[in-house]
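Re-running the complex after MR caught last week's input typo. The corrected sequence lines follow. Everything else is unchanged.
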Amino acid sequence: QKEVEQDPGPLSVPEGAIVSLNCTYSNSAFQYFMWYRQYSRKGPELLMYTYSSGNKEDGRFTAQVDKSSKYISLFIRDSQPSDSATYLCAMPSIGRTGNQFYFGTGTSLTVIP
Amino acid sequence: EAGVAQSPRYKIIEKRQSVAFWCNPISGHATLYWYQQILGQGPKLLIQFQNNGVVDDSQLPKDRFSAERLKGVDSTLKIQPAKLEDSAVYLCASSLAVGGSPLHFGNGTRLTVT
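Corrected-run output:
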């Protein structure tokens, strides 16, 4: 079983739709959860960073963590064509000599004007 | 705050040739990572440095790949000789050496081996 599973999509939605992106994980020791956005021909950009369970909101983006189910989500409200990108979830295993990161495979999102 | 700098952005070489990538992390970030990303996949760790020491190179194909981080700042990743399957994006990332600190990525080097 992979440490982190993510539906690769692709996902195509009309402008203004609510988008839900999800990841599941197997290691109950994960405490920090990240979402990265990657535009074509660019490096991943940190979008949301959360600790433990609960919700975190930043503008149109909401990150949700359910540690009991080992399930994290990223919601995008009022989606825009500029949101078209690949979204990666990531979570670190904490170590004394630095963190080891586990990534999902990424979900490709297209928002159609 | 300046981001992670990588060069070159693109490189095309023939198989069996050598290539080198350079990375300058965010100032103060002790941990530096090199990842390989193939289209449609998440980043795969090649090597992780803490300051100028190697923390994890278990997935680095050591017969052809090498990396160094002199003085605990800049890093170079080298491939010699390159194979067709090395065509990918090579991403450098850095983070603070503090539990749970997120990764900050550069824009990567897109390598095409023909």
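None of the earlier attempt is carried over here. Chain B has one domain: 5-98+105-113. DSSP finds no helices and eleven strands in chain B.
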